[in-house]
Every structure is written in C-alpha cells, then in structure tokens.
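Complex record, two chains
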Amino acid sequence: MSQEQAGTLAINNLSKHFTVEGSQIPILEDVNLSVKPGEFVSIIGPSGCGKTTLMRMLVGLESNYQGDIILNGKKLNGPSINRGVVFQDHRLLPWLTIEKNIGLGLLSKKYDKKSRTEIVQQHIDLVGLQGFEKAYPYQVSGGMAQRASIARSLVNRPEILLLDEPLGALDALTRMYMQQELERIWDLEKITMIMITHDVEEAVFLSDRIVIISNRPGRIKKIIPVPLPRPRERASFDFMRIKEEVLKEFQLHAEHQFSYAI
Amino acid sequence: MLARTNVLLRLKSSLRALVLPVLILSVWWFITYLGLVSAVILPSPEKVIQTFVTFANNGQLWFNLSVSFGRVVKGFLIGVSAGLCIGSLMGASRLAEKLIGPLFHAVRQVPILGWIPLLILVFGIKENSKIAFIALGSFYPMALNTFEGARSLKKEYYEVARVFEYTKFRLVTTFLLPAAVPAILTGIRTSLSESWMLVVGAEMFASSFGGIGEMIWLAKDAFHIHIVLMGIICIGTVGFVFNWTIGLLEVRLLQWRKPA
C-alpha cells in the first residue's frame, strides 16, 4: 500500500444494505469519492438518504459493507483516534467539567500531566471557551457545548475531522456564528473536514466541494465545487447562484428567479 | 442580603418540619398529664427524657449504641462492597449478567427474615450471624442500584469511547461508574437504612451481648416502657442522621447535575 499524505480519504465502490424481514433494502449504492488533504467537503441529501449511515461507516462504527474506505492508503478497520468525530448531540459527559471533557480525547495516549493541561488549554483557546474551563455541561449553552465537543475531537491532532450535522441542533443565529468559527478552526488547523449537513447555505459557506446524495438508494447525484474566496459573503451573487444550483438538485429552486419589485 | 434571606428561608423550612413532632409531643404530654392512660403503659415525656439522661450518664446507652453501630459498620461494608462488585460486573458485561442475573433475581425474592434460621446454623448464634444478616440485607439494594446505574449510560457514549480507543477498563472507570454514581448513592442510602433496621431485629432474635435492639427487648420483658420508648427514639434519630449524612454526600458528589 502506498504511503499517502495525511488526511487523504478515498471511498471506492461503497455499497451498504440493511436486511429487513428477509429482504434487502439498499441504503447506499456505489459511492465513489476522494478527498484531498485539507479539503472541506460537505455531504448533503434529503433525510433518509443514508448520509448518516455513510458517516457512521467513515467513523468506523458500521463495518458491514461492500467496497473500501481508504484513509492515507490504509483500509479502515473500526473507529480510530486518528479520525476526530463531532456528533450532532455534543456527547459531553455531564459529570465532567468542560476542561476535563476536552481532556478525554488524550487518555489513550501517554502524556504527562503538564503537557496534557497545555494541550487542553490550547484547544480551549482555539474554540474560544476561555473562562468556562470549570463549568459543567449543563451550565453552558448549546453552542458552547458544541465548541467543547469540537475541541475534544481535535486534541489528538486527528488526520481528518468528521462532522455529523454538528450545528443541526443550534438556533439559526448561533449556527451562522458557529459556521464562521468552524471555518476559522479549519483554516488554523489545516485539517481535512467532512461534514454531513442538511443546511444548503451552511454547505455553500464552508465547503470546497458539496456532494449531493440522492434518495433511496443513496447515490452520489452530483458534486458541486464552490470556488469562492473566503470568508464568503452570504448575500453575494455568486454565493446565491451556487446555493440555487444546489437547491435545484432538490427541486426546490424558484421557477422565476428574476422578479422586479420596483 | 441574599445570604440572609437564605438563612431565613432555611429556618422557616426547619420550623415547618418541627410542627408535627411538637404536636405529637404535646398530645402525648397532655394524655399523661391528665392521667388518661396508665403511666405503666404510656410513661410521660418527662419520664422518657429522665431515662435518657440516666442511660446517657451511666454509659449504658452509648455502650449499646456503639455495639449496634459496630455491627452495622461491619455488615454494611461487607454487603455494600460485594454489591458494588456484583452490580458493576453485571452492569459492565452482558455475559456476567447472563451468568449471575437469573440466580441473583431468584434469590432476591427470598425475604430477608427467611434467611435467619440458615444464617444461625451456619454462622452460629453470636456476632457472625448478625453481621452476615446485615451484610445480606445491604447487599441487594447496592447490587441492584449499581447494576441499573451502570446500565443507564446511553449507547451514544459507548461510541465516544470507541472513537477514543478506550480499553474496557477505562470505559468502566471513566464512563460506566461515574454514570452510576447517582444510583450508587441511592443504593448506599437504602443499604445503610436497611442495615440499621436489620441490626435492631438481629439483636432481638438471638442472644445479643449488647446492642440497642437487645436493650429494648430486655426492657420489654421487664415492662419498662419508658426504656423501650427512649430506645425507639434513639434508633429513629440515628437513622435520621445516617440519611442526612448521605444527603450531604449526594450534594457534594452530584454538583454536576442541573439543579431541579
């Protein structure tokens, strides 16, 4: 196997089906995708299209499938500390402070206490949670909890970060703010990110490429590149045009785009 | 300012807690004062207080309480440690649950009093059978609560543990046991009050060599109701203090919980 650059992901001929009452129901069919190191790729699709299943396969929590998932030239085999995961629900342990929750990611590797504290503090600074180190999860807002969850997934310096609708549970304004934050973190950490989302604007704002999955069975319908400079202006014409292009795939775009209200 | 209102509020709630005891005490006092019931059957509150002072001064009360307390500590510690081990074993491993679970739930159905003859036969009539009785009584609530507490960890957290490549040991120490702490505390609370109740019983059923239960039992034989009443009040008070102590422990250990 060839040694590839850290953060390279290749999905080859990936298929997955569930067996329900003896009959096979295809979930994903022949998914092919390759992701470059440092790339931000969003996967978007209607609910029930299998995108969460795809994410669980990338994490390593689903192992019964056909085809290959190859990270840095190596076939995936179960979950790994080298792949960071941010779940939709933050999954912080309620009995640990924010600081200790972030430190959970470091427990499987040998660090002395000093460097552990240092790494945790760096990541608290990275996600902007200064002052909340000693707070318990119930004491912080949903946005802050998700920041802590992002910090926790980054402490081991994973090669790739998998985000499963990370901002889906947040209110609209917090979500937009967190999108900017996520972009800032991505830019600082230079890490490959793959994000599942159902928010078209979020996908256009953050991604280098948007992968659209069709419904039942899930297939890659289209891959739309987003060649816009960052940080992106949500109200710009190009931004809107790409958003339209994505929405068109879901038959959601307006039939008459140009109307004049003068 | 805020601290002061807090103190006032607390004072108010403890005053409310005293309303009923004071009421009962007054009714009791009135009945004996008016001589409605024979003083042999219902001695006056003053008589009971006098008895308390006498027993406290001559050391009888402290001796008997410490004997009972010693038995509770031994039995409770044995029962609770065993309960913690069996409970977390069944909680952490499906195999252990399948192996131990059915027997555990079947044996649990035997009322604790049903064990007395067997325990006396096996452990003799003296200290050991009493300690075994208390241990057995505190074992079940502890094992059951620990088991359920460990099972209360949501499956989502198992996924987090897998992503972080935790060992089974780390999963248990970092995720399972802390998740079980609230249930474990409930187990400790139930076990402790169970132990205290059982020690009194154990001291009555078999020759006892001291203990608060024996003190009451012997006083009954001599028709010393004032000693019986004094003993009952002492038992109740100790039980109350136990419960209150565990309450303080809960407040300390469960700070992470959202206040209701």
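Note: Chain A has a mean pLDDT of 85.
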